[in-house]
Amino acid sequence: MGQAQLDTAMKRIALVFQQPLKVALQEQALSPPDCDEVVVAAHLSAISPGTEMLVYKGEFPPRMALDETIESLAGNVFQYPLQYGYSVVGDVIAVGDQVDRQWIGRRVFAFHPHASHFTVKLESLIAIPEGMSAEDGLFLAGMETALNLVMDGRPMIGERVVVLGQGMIGLLTTALLAMFPLQNLITVDHYPLRRQASLSMGAERSLAPGKAEASTRETECSTYLNNGAADLVYELSGNPQALNAAIQAADFSARIVIGSWYGTKRAALDLGGRFHRSRLRILSSQVSTIDPQFSGSWTKTRRFQAAWDLIQKVRPAKLITHRLPIQAAPEAYALIAQHPEQTLQVVLTY
Q: Sorting pLDDT into bands at 50, 70 and 90, what band is 272?
């Protein structure tokens, strides 16, 4: 199907963040593809319980630029009304005149806001590997982020590792860390559902913040959190107050990797205690770029391929707790915001 064969009157349904705590669905015209573009019909899209919740709640720095490395977001800023999102799986239904027609019917992943259909350049799409389910393929963005976090943290054999926060990125990061021969892998989260999922992802123990269990083993794990025994700490909770817990858990010369984006949230840091003498290294990790130390041999394409391989091993679709039609998007966001203890990954269907 070429550009002339696509119904020029075709409409799409797009999700729009209108103001804090309010999303709406809008009918919009669907642009026909230019010569190097394709049209995708969405099948599933994943709601990010981290970044998207900041957008939903209005906790973003006003007019800060969106991710310039994502074509569908580039050139826009955080300002209502806003179309946002970056994990969609769908099928190519039309192609431009210069695009190979064999792409028609291909299942693809797109870094694109939630919408029933969209027109993009072919080069912005990533074909889902043969035999992989759409549900597993939906986790490409999350797995790439987890891979980036692990690469930035550089875990070593025999290290003691703590991961604060077992939301979706925390769980995927835990799954990758569990593949290393670590001495310990301990995770922390408020919610029992997430702690149970963390154990299924490979964590040795998963604790509630500040809780020391009666058993000797749990007390030992709690010691790591309270007395600075971890060689590597990940702060993935999205709560800036957890940074003090990360400092408390870190051993002398330990690495603290911050993968959370806090938006406008602030917290006072206790840097006057053991932080000052412990030579701790605090690192910001964000998936849009590759650490310059790796960029000589690692490209985005290579990292995507590694992420696909890891998805095949982890099979993250089992972490989907809710599937709701796009028409129920307002209820989906309210569920995540009001009852995070009930959700891991919420998916919109089309």
A: confident
Helix, strand, coil % over all residues of the chain, rounded to 5 = 30, 25, 40
Q: Is residue 22 part of a domain?
A: yes
Statement to judge: residues 170 and 276 lie in one domain: yes
Query: Does residue 347 have a pLDDT over 90?
Result: yes
Start-to-end CA span in the chain (Å)? 21
287 and 169 Cβ atoms separated by less than 8 Å: no
Domain that holds residue 59: 3-127+315-349
Phi first, then psi, for residue 210 (nearest 5°) are 70, 10
Q: How many structural domains is the chain composed of?
A: 2
pTM of the model: 0.92
> CATH number for the domain including 12?
3.90.180.10
Q: Is residue 21 part of a domain?
A: yes
